[in-house]
Every structure is written in C-alpha cells, then in structure tokens.
Amino acid sequence: MSDEHDNLAFLIADTNRLIRQFFQQRLRCSPITLAQARALFYVSRFEGVKQVELADALEIQPMTMARLLDQLCDLQLVERVQDPNDRRAYQIFLTPAAKPHLAEIERVSALMREQMLSTLGSEQVSSFMRTLIRLRTGLLND
Amino acid sequence: MSDEHDNLAFLIADTNRLIRQFFQQRLRCSPITLAQARALFYVSRFEGVKQVELADALEIQPMTMARLLDQLCDLQLVERVQDPNDRRAYQIFLTPAAKPHLAEIERVSALMREQMLSTLGSEQVSSFMRTLIRLRTGLLND
DNA sequence: TGCATATAATAAGCAGAGCTTACAATATAG
DNA sequence: CTATATTGTAAGCTCTGCTTATTATATGCA
C-alpha cells in the first residue's frame, strides 16, 4: 500500500482523483465539474477577455476552452459577447446567475482545504504550495 | 495566472495533467499509459494476488482494475492464472516481457523526478511528499 | 445436506478532461 | 492587395474512472 508513496507521479494522480470525487460529491446541487469551476473561476478574474487568452491562462488548448465555455453557456453562467474590435473574437462575461455558483465553488474549496489541511500549520501549507508550484514549473518547460 | 495558485485543488489537477503529458511523451516507444504503469507497478510488488486485492490496494473499483488488466494482458505484460483455491478468482502475474517495461517506467519516473525536483533539497522533497500523503489521507476518510 | 447470502470477475455503457486535425472567418503585415 | 497569422469551432479520438447489472462460485447457516 504505502509502496506507492515512493512514486510522486502516482501519488499526485491519486490525489487528483480524490479531489475530483470530493468536489463532485459536495457540489451535486449545482451540476458543475472541477474543470468547469476552474474556467468559471478564471472568467471571474479576467472578465471580458477572449477565449484564447483564457485558454492561455489555464494552459489548455483553445479547443478545450471552447468546449468548457460551451458548457458554461449552456448552464447560462457565462456569456459570449462579440468583441467590438475583432469580429472573430468573443469576450467572455459572467452572467448574474454565476454569482451563487462561484460562492458555492468557494464554499467547497474551503471545505476541501479544511479537510485536507486541518492537521497542518499554515507555514507548512504555504511551503507545500510553493514547492508544488515549482514542480509544476519544472514540468512546464518541457 | 498566479491567481490560480490560491486554489490547491486546481493546482494539483493542473500538475496532474502535466505529469500525464510528460509521461506519455517520454514513453511513446512503449505504449503504456500512466494508469497502466501504476497497475503494472503494483502487480510487480504484489505478484500473485487477486484482482480485487489489487483494486483495493490502488483504491479503484474492481471494474476499473479489470479493464486495466485487460489492457496489460493484451500487451502480454501480465497473466491471469486461475486461483487454485477459488475458481472465481484469478491470480495476477507478470510475464517475462514486463521486465523491460518496468525498467522503462522506472527510467521515466526518475527523469520526471529529476526534472520536477532538481531545484529542491532532499529534505524539502521528503517533507513535500509527507504533506501530500497527509492531504490524500484527509480526503480518503470521506 | 440444501439454501441464502456474499464475493470475484465482467459486460455494457456513461462521464469528465483533454488532445489533434482540419476549416471558416477575420486581421494584419509587407 | 495579397500572404500570413489568429480566433473560434466541428469532428472525433484518448485516457481514467464510474455505475449498474449478470454470471459463476464460495460460504454461512438452518
């Protein structure tokens, strides 16, 4: 069992799966997935930007972002507005309906953080996050 | 961009995606996925156990494990042998062909570890892993 | 012994997250 | 004005994992 723990990749993959499960269980009221939540979260922080820019920020392909936005549009949490300066592009905005969902996401995030980090000191947590970011950066320059 | 870093869940999901990409790129010679590698890795450590036990060890559903073993059987890296004590069950064994693949997995793991952790001290790494395991445990008791 | 219940594996089918390739419409540089 | 680049999308694939039956076998119990 704890043999796995030699292997960082497996451990992260595993944790990721548990996070997704956790997230989906708590959020069954609002039918949003982790990836959608992440996209929505970014939209709320960069409202009005183009899809390409969003995709870039999330480091996913434009097509993947287009699909996520399709879903968020279907749920009427997000609007595509023609960019007045570029008729190819859309600007992405939140709808009023998005607010409670964002709050819900925040709530579940906090819950999860609580459940994961409750036994850790805040110093430990921030050190952990910093290390994780460095790992991630190491993988990015591929 | 760095706004995401407030959110541990998103950060881990993201890192996971990068790990999977890394893994698949380096391993294109042998057509094995991360999940298959993980299963194979476990089989090598618990050779002869039943599928249910493997599923349990990896904390995935028996059906998910059955599929993974189907794939590994197709690749002839693993064999299902009738359990002499229980005619419902199979015991899982490596084939001789598995060895080089396991070595390859080891190689790529080491490569990834190197690339992710090169800038970190070993003390930092083990502290990181310990914290990660605690997070994961926190999520497990759901 | 015989039956009810539990367990091992699997069939079938779905969902989530992401990718690639190809293409239309529009911008922009030369 | 033409060539090139960019925005968004259609179509379809992969990978990882799940749920809900079903079949075959074990096993506890009466």
From TrEMBL, chains A, B:
Keywords: DNA-binding, Transcription, Transcription regulation. Gene3D superfamilies: Winged helix-like DNA-binding domain superfamily/Winged helix DNA-binding domain. SUPFAM superfamilies: Winged helix' DNA-binding domain (SSF46785). It comes from the Bacteria. It holds the Pfam family MarR. GO terms for molecular function: DNA binding; DNA-binding transcription factor activity. This is Transcriptional regulator. It comes from Bowmanella pacifica. The lineage of its organism: Bacteria, Pseudomonadati, Pseudomonadota, Gammaproteobacteria, Alteromonadales.
